Fold this sequence. Notes:
The chain is an all-alpha fold. 80% of the residues lie in helices and 0% in strands. It has one domain (2-138).
Amino acid sequence: MGVRLREKWSGLPRWARWVLAVYLIGFAEGSGVHLFWMLMNGIHTFAHFPAVCQVFLNALVLLDPLVVVLVARVRRGGILLGVAVVTLDVTTNWIGNWPWVTADPARLLQPVGLLPITLFGLFVLLSAVPLLRVINDTAE
């Protein structure tokens, strides 16, 4: 299994390996952040968000690591799940943080919060199709 996985990674173009590495780092970091906040404050960490957003943000403790595992295994499902997760994550964060965005738009320039989440989301969305083409070509 390890050899086959190594072959899958080495069979990808260099740019695709870098993109997958960014996916792994981004989704692992997201998982860690959500787990941290849940451990610190329980399931009501995001109480200022609408209820459906709270449920989703808590579910990221499971969804983000699932994306990491699937992407690490170079599975198309990992890319597709990653697109869905990051789209919902960015949307949820914008919904929950909209009041302070409208009150103080300069807060968008902070290196934590909406800016990195949004940039990572754009990266995933823009890279998904080319990545799926390459993974499809190298799939068994």
